[in-house]
Write a structure and sequence with these properties.
671 residues; alpha/beta; DNA polymerase, domain 1; OB fold (Dihydrolipoamide Acetyltransferase, E2P); 4 domains; seven-stranded parallel sheet; six-stranded parallel sheet; binds adenosine-5'-diphosphate; binds magnesium ion
């Protein structure tokens, strides 16, 4: 018996080889295949008269063949011209060398032609349309094809699956009725093989709602965990004591946010808070203050960073602050030796370590705590729901703090972080120097190198961010390496130059970062691995090659690596691209230093679609819904999610929905 959870390999017509292709598309099971929706449709039912059909858009014409001529071109290709006619007008269909198709067409018979009409009022032409005999009509699904599998092949497999497998219902009947939604299986059948336009629209409505309903229920589920079990109660803040450990005074924004967090931690219910603050606003200290407080109250905390470099940096910062306080810190990253890892794990379990810093993956996967009081997640570019979800499902209920520099505009932020309270760090530490940003073309390169040297000679440091050659790690790394070798041996041969890229081993990266932090490396050539969180206040100049290849938010993050200390900093963007919209984009970065403003402008320029398309923001991948366009449905789905959780808080009566939500968390964790 085949069911939704059957491995895709065992569906008739698949087998081992095709299973691999399908799994690469993310289709592991028969259920996943059924939820692999068409990218678009060929609508053979929506017929346009030739005379009034719009130009340059895909239309379907039903017409009779009047004549057929062929002409052999010099190039050896045969051009077939077929004059066809419907009751409104004539047009010429041209086929280039499609001999088999051309020969199958008979004069006097009627066909459906699907394609774009070109030409003018008097002479209309359709070039290489899809052609089927007029009797065969319906709506044909088009799937994202690949080299190894065509749309037609996918369609055939889905036909088999639809005939054999029913999916369990994910939306309770009451909610379906209230929102006039069809059943899951009607929707699946008609999203793939619509029996009519109406049926298709019904199916689409239901699946959009469903997708957003799963998302919102998943989010609400996290939220409802909040306020339920009492978290670890922090009795005293120890803030004055902590402040005395710092080499600087906290900004009032930092202090305010710490107090907001502490109020949560005193309250007896677990904190779920997002701290949003632009790059350089000093979020790390906030986390440190809270972890200090937790430790003093006898609780353990962990700080999760997205990269090893950053975990290392945080660890060092914490060590410095907590020196001589008796607070025990440990570092857990991939490059820590197994033996040491085991020692740390054992110590954490016994409660002999107060604070552990590490990468997200390691800590969520591997570690057991004795008395976990606080979880801090740093620099969440990505949608943090997956991680928050995993922790909640582990049954632990510590205080949670998410720190993010990535502003997510408006409503969207509310949705993504809907389960979190928000604190904003809206002030930079005193004495920050402004960053000047310049935009130049490559003819300035030598001059820029001389300019960098002046800074280095003054004892400062700098970064050059290498061009992304293409979205391909290997190629990018080769080019970064070449760039580095060239500078090291030529223009900067009298300076110490370092290289940092993503494919270096953690240990190598670590060593380079240490050398850079300690000033042993003066100029660091890097790929975007430095984008996140790196803090070397003595670095004051950054050059970004091929600036046009980076997103605005990414440029803002990169630029955030300088201007972190007492020295004035300069950022130089290099591009030879003169396209108007590129320059417009780069002007935004040049003129603005406020990350929120930049994100807004980015959104305005690129439009919501592209904004969502860029994975930087870490929004969950949507199959059929559109988080912007379907905003109303999103709200409706949210309300229904709340309703449902009131009567069925653990989704015990809605197993299929629960399965989908767990699946969503899992996907988000993998991203
Ligand atoms: P981000 O918010 O980008 O994570 P960091 O926490 O890395 O910022 O802080 C940036 C730099 O500012 C660090 O070098 C940190 O030591 C320093 N810093 C943080 N708070 C203050 C402060 N109140 N006064 C002076 N320097 C500060
Ligand atoms: Mg940071």
């Amino acid at each position: 018996m085949i069911t939704a959870s059957t491995d895709i390999q065992y569906l008739k017509g698949v087998g081992e080889k095709r299973a691999v292709v399908l799994k690469n598309k993310g289709i592991d099971t028969v259920g996943a295949l059924l939820r692999f929706y068409p990218r678009s449709y060929l609508d053979w039912t929506d017929i346009s008269p030739i005379s009034t059909a719009p130009f340059f858009t895909d239309v379907c014409v039903k017409a009779k063949v009047l004549s057929k001529t062929e002409e052999r071109k010099r190039s050896g290709i045969t051009l077939y011209s077929i004059v066809v006619e419907d009751s409104s007008a004539q047009m010429t269909v041209v086929l280039w060398g499609q001999k088999f198709l051309a020969n199958s067409i008979r004069e006097g018979r009627e066909y459906l032609f699907y394609g774009k009409i070109t030409g003018g009022f008097l002479f209309k032409q359709m070039s290489s349309p899809k052609i089927v005999p007029a009797v065969e009509n319906g709506i044909e699904p088009i799937y994202p094809a690949s080299k190894n599998m065509s749309s037609k092949q996918i369609e055939r497999l889905i036909k088999t699956a639809v005939a054999q497998v029913r999916l369990p219902e994910t939306i309770p009947e009451e909610i379906r009725e209230r929102n006039r939604l069809c059943t899951i299986n009607y929707a699946i059948e008609n999203i793939h093989f619509p029996i009519s336009r109406e049926a298709f629209l019904k199916a689409q409505k239901r699946l959009v709602f469903e997708e957003l309903f799963i998302l919102r229920t998943g989010l609400s589920l996290l939220k409802s965990k909040k306020g339920k079990k009492a978290g670890s109660v922090i009795k005293q803040g120890y803030l004055a004591e902590f402040k005395a450990l710092l080499p600087f005074n906290m900004t009032s924004a930092q202090e305010r946010v710490i107090k907001e967090c502490m109020r949560d931690m005193f309250s007896g219910t677990p904190m779920s808070r997002l701290v949003q603050g632009d790059v350089g606003s000093g979020k790390t200290v906030i986390a440190a203050a809270l972890m200090y407080s937790a430790a003093k109250n006898g609780f353990q905390s962990c700080l999760m960073a997205p990269t090893e470099i950053l975990a290392n940096q945080h660890y060092k910062t914490l060590l410095k602050i907590t020196e001589n306080t008796g607070i025990r810190c440990a570092l857990m990253t991939g490059s820590v030796k197994i033996k040491e890892k085991n020692t740390i794990k054992a110590a954490l379990k016994k409660g002999e370590i107060d604070v552990v810093v590490g990468t997200h993956a390691l800590i969520t996967k591997d570690v057991e705590f004795n008395k976990l009081g606080l979880v801090v997640t740093d620099e969440q570019h990505r949608f943090g729901v997956g991680q928050r979800g995993s922790l909640a499902l582990k049954g632990e209920n510590p205080h949670k703090l998410v720190m993010s520099a990535t502003p997510i505009p408006g409503t969207l932020g509310l949705i993504l972080y809907g389960d979190l309270d928000v604190s904003i760090v809206d002030e930079y530490p005193a004495g920050r120097q402004k960053i000047d940003t310049y935009l130049v073309d490559t003819s300035y390169r030598e001059r820029i190198y001389r300019y960098i040297k002046k800074f280095l000679d003054d004892g400062r440091q700098g970064y050059i961010v290498c061009p992304l050659v293409e979205e391909n790690d290997e190629v990018d790394i080769t080019s970064a390496t070449e760039y580095y070798v060239n500078l090291k041996n030529n223009q900067f041969k009298n300076y110490s130059v370092g290289l940092l890229h993503g494919k270096m081993s953690a240990k190598e990266k670590d060593e380079v970062m240490r050398q850079f932090s300690d000033g042993e490396i003066q100029l660091l050539i890097a790929t975007t691995v430095i984008e996140v969180g790196i803090d070397v206040p003595n670095a004051v100049i950054m050059v970004i090659e091929n600036a046009e290849r980076f997103g605005l938010s990414q440029l803002h993050q990169l630029r955030g690596r300088i201007g972190r200390g007492e020295y004035k900093s300069d950022c130089i963007l290099i591009t030879d691209n003169t396209a108007e919209d590129t320059l417009k984009r780069l002007e935004i970065i040049k003129k603005n230093t406020d990350g929120f403003k930049i994100a807004d402008e980015d959104l305005r320029l690129r439009g919501p679609g592209n904004f969502l398309g860029s994975r930087q923001h870490g929004l969950p991948p949507m199959k059929i819904a559109d988080l912007f366009a379907d905003k109303e449905v999103l709200e409706l789905a949210g309300k229904e999610a709340e309703n449902l959780l009131e009567t069925d808080p653990d989704l015990r009566k809605n197993e299929a929905l629960k399965t989908e939500i767990l699946d969503l968390y899992k996907k988000l964790n993998k991203e």
